[in-house]
Amino acid sequence: MLHEKTIAFIGAGSMAEAMISGIVAAGKVPSQQITVTNRTNSTRLQQLEADYKINGLSSQQLNLKNIDIIVLAMKPKDAEVALLSIKDSLLPSQLVLSVLAGISTTFMEQHLPEGQQVIRVMPNTSSMIGESATAISAGSYTTTDNMSLAKELLESIGEVYEIPEEQMDIFTGVAGSGPAYIYYLMEHMEATVKKFGLQEDMSRDIIAQTIVGAAKMIQQQNETPTTLRENVTSPNGTTAAGLAALEKSGGGKAISQAIKNAAKRSHEISSQLEGASKEKVQAV
User: Fold this and answer.
1) What is the pTM of this model?
2) Most Cβ neighbours (<10 Å): which of 23, 89, 91, 211?
3) C-beta of residue 116 within 8 angstroms of C-beta of residue 141
4) H/E/C letters for each residue in 225-248?
């Protein structure tokens, strides 16, 4: 049962904190059974320990033998070193989750003991409030029971989607990086209305509520985005004028390109890391 499991986050950045916050708030795993660690920043560990009542330990203090689920949450460039550093401490029963963009299950399996159970995970920072869109893909040796366990854990931070791993890059482009696109849009909306004298705090709430309302319409109405857009666009009206400006400025193309670029970068990270790893093997 998930409530009995222990979890360790290796890496203490924003994504680790977002997930810890969501998991603790959901109450599916007692906070005292959650540990977070990093290599050097003890101040960061103390902050997370105080904020979420979890255990903050240095990497030297962490005993992986006492951990059921290990979450890799460092920077992707540090993945290989991290995997090799834990390799000799792992047990076959332990589950390794990676929330690192571009790190494939194959890459993890190559750097861990043969048969190790791994799952690739792509959440987003809305994990902090239990509203993440999270994708998961199983490794070669991962059991059905452990996939169910991972889903149960990740459902505490939002919705979970099991997808083929070859689709993980595009998922990263749309959902992993997606909140930043929305924040960017909100920045520009806020800056524009500010010029017309609308109170800043109020304008931010208005913009946020507008986006929340539109998102809920998609979730609750059995209609496509195209149909909903057309339903609110009267000929020669204000919405039509705004959409015409978006079209003229390349708004739709910009959104598509943002998703494609993020997905491309996810694939590049994977290719670069796997290529560097193969070069090391060949050099030995």
Assistant:
1) 0.88
2) 23
3) yes
4) HHHHHHHCCCCCCHHHHHHHHHHH
Domains of the chain: 2-165 (3.40.50.720), 176-259 (1.10.3730.10)
Average per-residue pLDDT in the chain?
Answer: 93
The neighbouring-strand residues paired with 58 are 38
User: With 60 as the cut, is the pLDDT of residue 115 above it?
Assistant: yes
Residues 43-71: tens digit of each pLDDT:
999 999 999 999 999 888 899 999 999 99
d(Cα 73, Cα 54) in Å, to the nearest integer?
A: 16
Confidence of residue 284 (pLDDT cuts 50, 70, 90): very low
Phi, psi of 118 (to 5 degrees): -135, 150
Cβ 88 vs Cβ 72: under 8 Å: no
